[in-house]
Amino acid sequence: MALQRMDHVGVVVDDLDAATAFFTELGMELEGRTPVEGRWVDRVVGLDGVRVEIAMMRTPDGHGRIELTRFRTPAAVSAEPAHAPPHTLGIRRIMFAVDDLADVLARLRAHGAELVGEVARYEDAYRLCYVRGPADSSSPWPSSSTDGRPGPRAGPPTGGLPIPILVLE
What we know:
By secondary structure, this protein is an alpha+beta fold. 16% of the residues lie in helices and 31% in strands. The chain has three helices and eleven strands.
């Protein structure tokens, strides 16, 4: 028996509309949105009385998907610390490739995204940065631009999705 594929990554969010808008602005497409509940969900996740709403987002190439989940019951709980440092155990990022980092950052800022640090260059390959978007986490965004200019500096991070996002240009 062999692994067939990685189907999707699940991200629990407080504001499903904001998270969906954020990932749509990034370039993902909404595949569908639906409420989910019932004994089968309770059994799968190991909680009683689960009522969630999910939005399934897919990358334009159709190969990558993110399931955004908002728990109605039981209420979602926050991880400690809320803004875990990059060396915290667990999932630390989701990586995306983009063709214009500056454009993506500008569009995501309209959805509340802020740089955590600054845009930095990795050798001559790409630039990258972490951003914090709506809901509760950091995101790294690399870009292969060759202009050599660092990105804008942001103040202390506020808000963000619960998982970092890495973007490669």
